[in-house]
Amino acid sequence: MNSQGQPSQGQHRRGQLDGVEDTGLAADQLSDQERRKRSFGLLAEIMRPVKWQFSSAAVFIVIQQLATVVGPALIAWAIDTALPDLIDGDASLAILAGIAYLATAVLRAITTYLGTWLTTLAGQKVLYGLRRRIFSHTQRLSLGFHERYTSGRVISRQTNDTESLRELLQTGLDVIVGAPLLMVFTAIAILSMDWVTGLLMLLMLIPGVFLTRWFQRKSAEAYRDIRTHSARLTVDFVETMGGIRAVQGFRRETENDERFAAVGLDYKNAALRSIRIFGIYQPSLKVLGNLIVAIVLVVGGWRVLSGQLDVGVLLALVLYTRRFFQPIDMIASFYNSLQSAVAALEKIASLLAEEPTIREPAHPVALPAESELGGVGGTLEFHGASFKYSATGPTVLHPLELRIPGGQTIALVGQTGAGKSTVAKLVARFYDVTDGQITLDGVDLRSLTSQSLRDAVVMVTQESYLFSGTIAENIAIGRPNATREEIEAAARTIGADAFIRRLPQGYDTDVQTRGGRLSAGQRQLVSFARAFLADPRVLILDEATSSLDQPSERAVQDGLTTLLGDRTALIIAHRLATVMVADRVLVMHDGRVVEDGTPAELIAAGGRFAQLHRAWRESI
């Protein structure tokens, strides 16, 4: 705690990590039983397209286990029946036994290969489809989701959690189907050969059942902790590397090392706890299996000496008894992977259950053509539009009545938190208004398809995010079918052409990850060219000149004067040099428009804008 009794930064950060689980999602406010049901529903859904591969693999697994069980029975028959004939000089039964045993071995090898190939093929198809589904679903979720769901958690769903499902899909069928079948077939074989030995084995199985139940309960708890701490590691690493400039700029390396070490220690301890549980269970199971084998040998040997049991049968019973506990060992070893996969499946199902808050309209309405509007589109109207970021949160935009004619350039100014960016996000429909409506050329934004809205409204923010690829490719994002001439013309218009041509490969220069090859101002100019190439009806510039130096800003202003003459523009900027190109200024305060007029009119009125303008003039 700090001196005011508030949580310190470190405590707050640790609290964020403690909340890394998906239970904070709106789609995940369910009971454990409901989450488990939803998870297995997802598993059934993603496996449906490859059900014939899994079904075929299951058939091969059944044949494989039958061939496995037949082996010891053939050995018993060879010793007790074929061997005496061989001693008497008749080798036909011995040869037949050898051929039969070899045939079962070949059959087992073939079915093992076919079953493994089919499950691997099906598993990879499922994982490929699931990864695409997670990516597609996540990028279509609304901005509000991404503002509360960290990128590290999204990466964990796409990588760690899908990888956890791999073993379940590729080897799980062999364990889930093959292991129980091997136990059942083995038990039937033992009981058919000698019911006394079968009864002894089943009685000794009771401690194994209790031991396995203990292991299941303890390992489930341990693996839940492992998944939690694994996600925390991913989140902490991704966020630290994503903010590496701030980390190094504020010399936070030592504090981050200590925090990551603490998170890593939690993960290590959880992993060790899981290993310790498994280290108790598996040796105990082996001891129990060897004890049963010893009992079968002692009892069986006594019965062989008394003439109640054949030697070959005793050998087969010993082999069967040893094999009977192998499936239990397989299931125990696989159970750890199963717990990890189930936990991962719950998290993926939770993410996929999250619904976009911005929905496609049930009955979409097309925007009227600009020719129908007299040649200039982009008229925005706010009809009692108000907004809260959450149902219980404060109102950040009070009911707003406003009309912005098509082709008009509007500047939104005001202190931080006044509601300027909220207006921009509502026009771009990153959020929907809580009450009232916003229309574009007479059409409610909620009645437009996302594609129609993205074609009509483009926002440029101060982040100026560039994707890996060439400068030309980044500009073309604004209009993918644009020609090279159109791309270069857009760059020339906003003043980016000169610096681009000075680069080693000009427009074909790779900007590298996040545009790291370019300066902040250059990245912003490229993002401007991208937006201008899109040629939208409404262009929103949200602090878009904040990264530009004075010469670059003047070049952009020249471009704005030319290009924004026939389209609606909303400019949000603290630099009044950018604001002064506007036809009209809206001064916002506490979620309300408190001044509205041309820059000259507001300066003459001596209100809030005049004060901002005077402070700006004094600063230069």
Explain the overall architecture.
It is found in: Cell membrane. Keywords: ATP-binding, Cell membrane, Membrane, Nucleotide-binding, Transmembrane, Transmembrane helix, Transport. With 620 residues, the chain is of the alpha/beta class. It has 2 domains: 9-353, ABC transporter type 1, transmembrane domain (ABC transporter transmembrane region fold, Up-down Bundle), CATH 1.20.1560; 372-619, Rossmann fold (3-Layer(aba) Sandwich). The chain is 64% helix and 10% strand. It has 21 helices and 10 strands. It has helices at 9-18, 32-47, 51-87, 92-140, 143-148, 151-193, 195-242, 244-249, 253-305, 311-324, 326-353, 420-427, 450-456, 471-476, 484-493, 497-502, 520-534, 550-563, 576-579, 599-605, 608-619, and strands at residues 380-388, 395-404, 409-413, 435-440, 443-444, 457-461, 538-542, 568-572, 584-589, 592-597. The strands form 2 sheets. The chain has a 6-stranded mixed sheet, with helices on both faces. Strand 1 and strand 2 (395-404) form a beta hairpin. Helix 9 (253-305) runs antiparallel to helix 10 (311-324). The longest helix has 53 residues, at 253-305. It starts with 8 loop residues before the first helix and ends with a helix. The relative contact order is 0.08. Residues 1-24 have low confidence and may be disordered.
